[in-house]
Amino acid sequence: MSALVVVVGPTGSGKSELALHLAEALDGEIVNCDSVQLFRFFDIGTAKMPLAERRGIRHHLMDVADPDETFTAGDYARVAAVVIGEIQSRQRLPILVGGTGFYLRALLNGLPEAPPRDDAVRERLTAREALRHGSLHRILRRLDPGSAARIHANDTPKLTRALELRLITGGPASALASSTPRLVSGRTVVKIGLDPARLALYQKLDVRCAAMFAAGLIEETASILNRGYSPKAKPFESLGYAQILRVLRQEISVEQAIAETQQQTRRYAKRQMTWFRREPDVHWIPGFGSEAAVQQEALRLAATVK
Asked: Long-range contacts of range 298-301, CB-CB < 8 Å, 24 or more positions apart?
C-alpha cells in the first residue's frame, strides 16, 4: 500500500475526531502534523488527544521531543516520511492530521537547501522588530517581495528567517534549490479539508480556550518550568502558553490571558485557512469533523485509496 490520507483545517475544526473515525473504518494509523504536539508535556494547550480517548488507534509523532530540543520542518519531513513508510509496509493506511501547514508542505513537497542559522544576524533583526513593530515585514517587502507576500506581517519567526536567508545568500529564499525529497512521488495522496462556518468555529474556539484554562493550563505550564525547562523554549511561544508565561510574570491577569488567547486563536485559525486554501487538490467539506455527514463524505473520499 502506498496511499496517504491527509486531514487539514483550522484549529478547533475537529480534525482529530475525523481522523479517528477514518482510522477505525479503514484500518489506519494516525500521524501527527502539529508542530507543538511533537513536544512532551505540552498537552492541554495543544488539545492533544489523551491516550484513553484514542480508541486503541496508534498515534505517531506525539511526545517525541523534549521542550528544549530543536525540531524543524526539515526534521519533521524526514522523520514523518520514515513513519509513513513503516505504516504502509504493515499494509495499513497512514492518516496525517494537523494544522501546521508548513510541516505538511515540507513533507509533501520538500524544502529548499538553506544555510544554518546566524545568531548575530537574528539578534540584530529581533532588536529591530522590538524597536519598531512591523519593520521586518517592510524590509522583506523591499528585499524579497515574493516571501513577504507569503508571510504574515505578525509572523516574526518566519520573517526573521526569510530576511536572514536574504542577507546571508544575497538572494530570495524562493531561489534556493530543493534538497528534501518529495514524499508524494509514487504515492496516492487524498487531502481532506474541514471548513466549518466561521462564526461557529470562533464560538467553539472561545469556549475551548476558556476550558483549557479551567482544565489546568496554568498548572501545566508551571510544571514544565519546574522540570527545569527555560521559558524561552520554542513550544512556549505557542498560543496559551505564551499568555500563561505573562501571567506567571504578573504582567497580565488570568482573565486578560484568556481573552488574549481567544483573540489570537481566532486570528490563527483565519491564517490557517488562508494557508490551506493555497494547498492544491484539497477536497473541502463544510462542517466540523465530529458531524456524521462530514465523516460520511470524508470516508467516501478516503476509501478511494484503499
From this structure: 298/7, 298/18, 298/21, 298/22, 298/192, 299/21, 299/22, 299/25, 299/26, 301/190, 301/192
Please report, for the chain, how many H helices and E strands are present, in that order. 12, 6
pTM of the entire predicted model: 0.81
Rg (CA), the chain: 20
Chain segment 30-45, per-residue pLDDT in tens: 999 999 999 999 999 9
* Sheet with strand 188-195: strands edge to edge: 59-60, 28-32, 93-97, 3-8, 188-195, 282-286
DSSP letter at 112 equals: B
Domain range enclosing 102? 3-111+186-305
pLDDT in tens, 282-293: 999 999 999 999
CATH code of the domain containing 86: 3.40.50.300
Choose among 24, 33, 30: nearest CA to 55: 24
Cell, residue 226? 519546574
